Amino acid sequence: MAAVLTGSESGGVSPGHPTAMLGGAGWTQLKPGARGTAKLGQWLRRLAARSSTACRVRRGRLFVERLRPTDDDQILDLGGGSGGHIAELVPYRRNVTIGELDAEALQRAAETFGFGGLQLDGGETFPVADGQYDLVFCSSVIEHVTGPKEIAYHTEDGKQFAASARAAQANFAAEIRRISRRYFVQTPYKYFPIEQHSFLPFFVVLLPRRWQVRLMRFLFAHGWLKPVYPDFRLLTVKDMRALFPDAEIVLERYCGFVKSIVAIKA
């Protein structure tokens, strides 16, 4: 049975993880008549950002309490951006490494926090030895691991996208298990009432992919709250159990609904 983590804060995107906004504002151009909607969106984004701060704090407590990181642990923040998130959770610097595709983010992590950097190339195998890290931390990343960009960004073929994403996520999870002794992997829950990347109602995840892409393009062109391209494949509790069979699955709830899933191997 999965453990349950309860609370009342709203979810959001961690500042240390820019992948949650892949596609960016340039994916579609805002129409001039959408300024009022855009202003409302800005206000709601600020509200969500304040709430997500509380969310990150509570998840951080869970991470520290369950994984008990020390300055003797070799810690990898996988997909950790510029290092801001993990820096809030642990006081250590010399034993923390950020794993990222973005070389500029790694440079900022080194300059700002003194973290080590692991340059990833998007390949199937991480350039890391078996069991090299005592602890891997990975927050709101695995849902974006969906295969080559030409598929993740451009295809409207739902079967092709799903097959690519399933294979990429299975490989990503296997690599986490291969390189770590302990891990903490968090991802938004697929059926939370609000899809947490786009702020659209959850039923958007049930639409055929071509409708998802076209709906998001239309809404964001007219000033919807969060410009984001659907490069992500959201996961269920069953999916996370299959990807991390040696982990405990912890469920975070908001207003009675599962909002986030965490796989923990302590």
What does this structure look like?
The protein is of the alpha/beta class. It contains 7 helices and 8 strands. It has an 8-stranded mixed beta sheet with strand order 1-7-8-6-5-2-3-4. Helix 3 (103-113) links the parallel strand 3 (96-100) and strand 4 (116-119). The protein is globular and about 50 Å long.
Q: State the low-pLDDT regions, or none.
A: 6-30
The CATH topology is Rossmann fold
Class inferred from helices and paired strands: alpha/beta
Q: Percent of residues in beta strands?
A: 15-25%
Helix content: 25-40%
Shape: globular
Q: Biggest sheet, in brief?
A: 8 strands, mixed
CATH architecture: 3-Layer(aba) Sandwich
Distance between the termini: 17 Å
The total domain count is: 1
Per-chain topology:
Layout: E1 3-7, H1 35-67, E2 75-78, H2 84-89, E3 96-100, H3 103-113, E4 116-119, E5 133-139, H4 149-152, H5 158-179, E6 180-188, H6 209-221, H7 237-243, E7 248-254, E8 257-265
Parallel strand pairs: 1-7, 2-3, 2-5, 3-4, 5-6
Antiparallel strand pairs: 6-8, 7-8
